[in-house]
Write a structure and sequence with these properties.
- By secondary structure, this protein is of the alpha+beta class.
- 31% of the residues lie in helices and 26% in strands.
- It has seven helices and eleven strands.
- The chain has helices at 33-40, 76-83, 95-106, 116-127, 177-192, 204-208, 216-223; strands at residues 4-6, 24-28, 45-46, 57-59, 63-67, 87-91, 131-138, 151-161, 164-172, 196-198, 212-215.
- The strands form two sheets. The chain has a seven-stranded mixed β-sheet with strand order 6-7-8-9-10-5-11, sandwiched between helices. A four-stranded mixed β-sheet has the order 1-2-4-3, covered by helices on one side.
- The relative contact order is 0.17.
Amino acid sequence: MPVFQLDDELWFPDPRLAEGDEGCLAVGGDLSVDRLLLAYQHGIFPWYSFRDNDQPVWYCPKKRFVIFPDEIHVSHSMRTLINKGRYMCTINEDFDGVIHNCSQLRYDEEGAWLGEDIIRAYTEMHRQGFAVSVETWDTQMPPDRPDVPGRLVGGLYGVNIGSAFFGESMFSLVPSGSKMALIYLAYTMKHLGGSLIDCQLKTAHLESMGGRYISYEEYMRLIRQ
């Protein structure tokens, strides 16, 4: 199947035409808020090496790796760590800190995708109320700012549309820093009636926390709710 070339018009091809299991669908277009919102509403997301590509590359995998909020797995060791009370999680207290930490931890790696264009695009998404961060703070370390509860040691960010959360990236500066943020996100979504957390790609880390595959058809049914 072809990989479609996008232009300045706001459109995407039928996601079911995506190539292979990874779902490479299209190249080109831009990272405007309107295009990103259109993409996520159809299960499409940008993912490309900013050093190797001068245009966005768009994907829509045929199988979707997701976590349902009420299926989040919290291990005994994680429960013990949470119950100690050293770490605290928040939402949207430091989006800039989260996205820049996610970028810097992988910036020098081959194929790194979280470059300045992505940072600008999702920061604008956050400014308009669509991109969300979850922060993990170490309350026993001195904070970098007087208005936060401790040192930022982990977190994640993604896009929230309707009842779905589309995860983009996470980071940890201490063991389990990102896990705590993900658990906090799942508990918050469960409380608010959230439908799913889209993990985009399968990893052993996410699978251990309850991630599993569903079909694209089931995925679209859920996010359209």
